[in-house]
C-alpha cells in the first residue's frame, strides 16, 4: 500500500539534497579553449565566467576581431562542459532518493 508519510519524507530529503547540489555547483570549474589553447575561459557550474586567459601573441590591434571570436568560442565550450558537469552533480546528489520514474529527469532542471 502507498505510504504517504514515507513519500513526503522522501520529497523533503530530495529537496535538501537538491539544495545542497545547487550550492555545490559554484565549486564545479570547467575550462573551454579555442584557437589551439590560445584563449581559455573557465566557468563554474552556475554558468558564471570565472576567468579568461589570452595568449599574449593575440594581443595586437590587428587581431581584435579574431580574439573576440576566439573568446566567445572558448566561453561557449566551457559552458557546455559546465552544463554536463552540473547535471552529473545533480544526478549524483539525488541518486537513490526518488524512484526512477520514466521521463522524470531532475538533472535537466538546471
From TrEMBL:
The keyword Hydrolase does not apply. Keywords: Coiled coil, Cytoplasm, DNA-binding. It is found in: Cytoplasm, Nucleoid. Its main location: cytoplasm. GO terms for molecular function: DNA binding. It comes from the Bacteria. InterPro entries: YbaB-like_sf, YbaB/EbfC. Residues 4-31 form a coiled coil. PANTHER family: NUCLEOID-ASSOCIATED PROTEIN YBAB. Homodimer. Belongs to the YbaB/EbfC family. This is Nucleoid-associated protein SAMN05216290_3391. It comes from Roseivirga pacifica.
Amino acid at each position: 500500500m502507498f505510504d504517504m508519510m514515507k513519500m513526503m519524507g522522501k520529497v523533503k530529503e530530495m529537496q535538501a539534497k537538491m539544495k545542497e547540489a545547487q550550492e555545490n555547483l559554484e565549486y564545479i570549474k570547467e575550462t573551454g579553449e579555442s584557437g589551439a589553447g590560445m584563449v581559455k575561459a573557465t566557468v563554474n557550474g552556475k554558468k558564471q565566467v570565472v576567468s579568461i586567459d589570452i595568449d599574449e601573441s593575440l594581443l595586437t590591434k590587428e587581431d581584435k576581431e579574431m580574439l573576440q571570436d576566439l573568446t566567445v568560442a572558448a566561453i561557449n565550450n566551457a559552458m557546455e562542459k559546465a552544463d554536463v558537469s552540473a547535471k552529473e552533480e545533480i544526478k549524483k546528489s539525488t541518486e537513490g532518493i526518488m524512484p526512477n520514474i520514466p521521463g522524470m529527469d531532475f538533472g535537466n532542471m538546471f
